[in-house]
Structure formats: C-alpha cells, structure tokens
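Hi Q.,

Before the meeting this afternoon, I wanted you to have the iron/sulfur cluster prediction in hand. No need to reply - just skim if you have a minute. The sequence and ligand are here:
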Amino acid sequence: MVMNNSNYNSTQVNATCPACGLLCDDISIVSSPQLTANKACVKGVSFFKRAFKAPTDTLPLIAGQASDLDSAINKIVEILHLSKNPLFAGLGTEVQGMRAIMRLAQKTNASLDHMHSEAGVRNTLALQNGGWMTTTLAEVKNRADLILAIGTDITSSHPRFFERLIENTDSLFKQQPPEVVYLGTTQDAAINVENLSKLPEILNALNALLHNKKLQVTHVADVPVATLQSLIDKLKSAQYAVLVWSASMLNIPHAELTIQSITQLINKLNETTRAAGLPLSSGDGDTSVNNTSAWLSGYPTRLRFNNGMPEYDNHQYATSKQLADCDAMLWISTFNPHPPIFTKAPTIVIGHPDTQFERTPDVFIPVGVPGVDHNGLMLRMDSSITLPLKKLRDSKLPSLTTVIAMIEEKLSNEVSP
Ligand code: SF4
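Predicted structure with the ligand bound:
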C-alpha cells in the first residue's frame, strides 16, 4: 500500500503500529517517493494511510467556526468550570495521554469510560469473580503447543497474530508450530457452531467432560459430544495450551459467565498440565488506558472522581448511564476519527484531525495522532510490556497531553483566589 505525504521527515524509519494490541514494532516506513508501511498488515497500512493523509495544520473550532488554540482552551475551561458532573468518554489515547486525562478528571470530578469498555467489563467481571491465569505473547511464541481460539478467528482483529507468534521459526523452546483449533461460527472452524450464543452450552459441556462427567446426549448445540471429548483429550495431553477469546466478539447475554467458563477450563487443566488464557484487546488504546487508570487510581475505567477520590462502579459509570446525567462531555479519540456519541450536554472533542461530526460540538481541538505526529507509549495487549510510539513527521498539531495540560493550567488559574 502506498501513501502520499509531503511532511514526512526521513527516508526510512522503524515504527510501531498502534492499530491493534499486537503493537508490531517491525514496521518500516519508507518515504521516497511515496510512503509505504513495510510489514504492516492491511489494518496497519490503513491506519498509517489515514493518519498521514490527515492535515497537520487544522485549526480548532468553536461552535463550528475556525478559532485559535488559546480561545478553544478558554471555551473548554468555561464549560468545565460550570460543570458539576463531566463525563470523559472515548479515551482513545496512549499512556501519556491517559496520565494527563486522569489528572484533569481528578481536578474536575469527572467520570471516565473507554469507548470499548463494554467488552473490557466482561473480562473484568470474570477476573473479579474467580481470578484467572493468562499468558504473554512471548510465551505463546516460545512455548504453546496448542492454541484453542474460542469464538474468534483472531486474525480479523489481530491480523499478524499467526505470522508473528505461530508460524515463526525462531521459537526458543519448540521445534514445531502449535496445533490450532478454532471453535467458532465460520466455515473454516474445526468445531463449527451456528452462532456465538451457543458457546455457553459448549463450554459448560467441555467443563463437564474435563471433570469426567458422562453426558447423556449425543450432541450439544449440534456439536457431537465425541468431537468435544476429542478436544478435551487434546487439551489434556498438550504441554502448554493457550485458550484465546475476544470479549468484544462475545455480544451475548452474560458474556462474563462464558469467559468464566473458559477460565474454569484453564484452572482445571492446570491440575495435570499447563494451560493459560489470552484475552484479545479491543483497540483504541484500551489496554494502555485501563492499565494507566489502574496504576493511578487502583481501578480500570468506569470510575469517577469525587472530591478528588476515585470511585469504581462498572455499571453506574458506563458511558450509556452517564450520558443521561452528565452536564458536559469531553470526547477523546486520537488514533481514529471516531465521532462523539450524542448528548444534549455541551460537548468538547479532542481528537483525530479527520473527525467528522453529525452534530457540531461546542469545541473541537484536532490533535496529533500518537505514533505518527508525536511520540507516545503503549501497553501491548498482554499488559506485559510497554512499547514506544515514534513521531514520524513534522506536524503543527499539539498532542493530547499538551492540550490537557493547557486546560489544567487555565482551570487552576480560574479557581485560584
Ligand atoms: S497486526 Fe496489528 S499491530 Fe501489527 S501491523 Fe497489523 S494492525 Fe498493526
């Protein structure tokens, strides 16, 4: 894929792709005569293409009218100053951006929720209820001998997963790639289920078989019990099985219980062999945002500051709940031009310069894209390492961190006697 750009500041540079939780750090961006993102998958190329096509000198807007940064900051401070219950939503950012947002949220008693937290909460509920054993991408690459992909083909959301972790030839401790079993809804699934709402039945049957229970039926959710037994035999004889799921794919009632069924399988398998889970991330910096929130407040997002103290409630502080009560919304999306969700409350958007609006926000400040317009830090989907994002071109756009710091400073001056 080829991208045009005149602001690119080098002929070739290595880059980290923030477009999914794998954070591939072997991307080579070549500038001349046109931009190419070597080694990036289609999703990664599309990210870089859109980021590089975005203008680097877009002006802030106040009520749709072009303005300057200082005036836009003043307007934001005016809105936040009047607000008793601001909602900071979207939160598509990296570690440094989230650190700045947390400081501002503490000062303004805001509630915080990431745009993909509906999926994240499914994992959090399962983790809170029974704990879990998960693994890292390095362990998958070096040790896994069986991958069970549950309800996800993995590649749709994390396109280079198999190329980087399964088909690699530089594994430290194994000579053969792991066997991969896909339990899902598409035709290429080894164990095919009609739709994902059948997964709870299948997983409960797998748990029963793993506990040596005899099922008095021939099929469960149209899957032969013999097929399920054969999967259990594979899992028991594997030396390091990894069970992969994607909470964002599990749009089924009480998905957290389905995830808990997966973690119970893992617990039981570990009585006789080794097995671990690998939850896939949902994107837009969700892993970075939730880890940063947890470092700084003790909780992942869906929290609120009250008199500067964090309160966590994964139901009450959901964006969908807070939209009804908030009196101002700050929407943040820096990786992708996701438009804000609708609210009647005054709306501030700090985001990707290409963001399009159905309803004009009160203030829009376009900011640089992390990993293209400025440096940054991101946590990989396994939360095990932080990778640097590099500035790849010259840009007049401020970073989210700079804008939030300016708001913070102005707010402090406003409240000072
Ligand atoms: S697999 Fe993910 S991180 Fe790697 S290039 Fe594709 S989108 Fe980017």
